[in-house]
Amino acid sequence: MSTSDNDRIAYLSGEAVGSLTPHERAELDELRMLLETPATWEEPDTALEDSVVNAIVEEARNQPGGAAAPAVSDEARTRPARRRAPSLRSRFGRPAFAFALGAFAAATVAAVIVALAVGNKSATPLRFAMVVSGTPLAPAAHGSATLTKTTSGWRIELAATGLPHRANGRYYQAWLKNAAGILVPVGTFNDAEHVTLWSGVPVTQFRTLTVTQQQANGDPASSGRRVLVGTIRAAH
Amino acid sequence: MLEGELRRRFCHGDPDAVRSIYRSYGGLVYAVAYKVLGERGLAEEATQQAFLKAWRAAQSFDDRRELGPWLAAIARRVAIDLYRREALRAADPLDSVPSSEPSLISSPESAEAISDVWEVRRAVAQLPADEQEVIRLKHFDGMTHVDIAERLGVAVGTVKSRSFRAHKRLAALLGHLRE
Questions:
Q1: Is the minimum CB–CB distance between A7 and chain B shorter than 8 Å?
Q2: Inter-chain CB pairs, A–B, below 8 Å
Q3: pTM > 0.80: yes or no
């Protein structure tokens, strides 16, 4: 292997390499972006397999002369993929991507809505609740958050344990993220045990709450060092 | 290539044949749909519709063609149709618009971008599990070698060598994307 090949591999893996041409960098940057995109890693709900099989079996049965046998229950057979009841889902349902099952799945993005109280619109504010889980950077962290619509915006009350106090220019920052990956900051804090955050964007669109470790170093962007993650899952 | 017997059973709606094809290609079809739609529920809906359309068209499928790209093309068309359907929901109150609302975000992904995701996902799936894990933690979770070593309970040097092997394999598997 030539030095140049090694340099390309090093750059692809995220190392700083000065010997590549701008064209080579651009090509490898595209590949890195593909490795970062959720579509490369997301897995469907494992129940989708039954939905697909049963949708086809059902249609085959309704064809003239069709007689394919149902694969599972009638209830499952008649349930369209998108109308399934929300459930706690693993992101890694298939064997090829099963490496991160178990502790990792329990400690990362796994988050589920625990209450969706729409209630009486005239008297009860729109309110969501979510479980937040620690990432590999903070596997012991966990907690919950309630998100309430007010006339000023969305009030987010976060209560989490397992995160150490941060001070002396080191702090936590909370963010809301939408499906396109756009981050909106919703507040900074030192302790996560009882925090009130405010959002000017609707949590119905920005459904993922993340908390990152930050440093007051003049860079306001997310450090990417996520320690807590939770996602609202809409009820259909 | 879709083997004759499996294809015949698939066309007949045989559950085992459908399941076999789903297990081979479901993740990739879902990746295509997710790339276009950016939301799990819609991507799952598109995946189901894509397999249904594939089943309806399977009688005319040319056995000499590769099944994967054919399914990817169907998935992309279905996903873009769903994308447009969602974009037409202009009368909904703002707070009821789903976070995935495509009209708020971007245009449909190009066929080339979708093909690239398909290729990358297939290449990652060919890596040994320990290398897949390092690649995922590095790129998707944004972790450093030190973070990964702590997470996996191995030496930083082990992570570096595993990372180098994984990226070398990926570079070889995906070299055609740079041409």
A1: no
A2: 198
A3: no
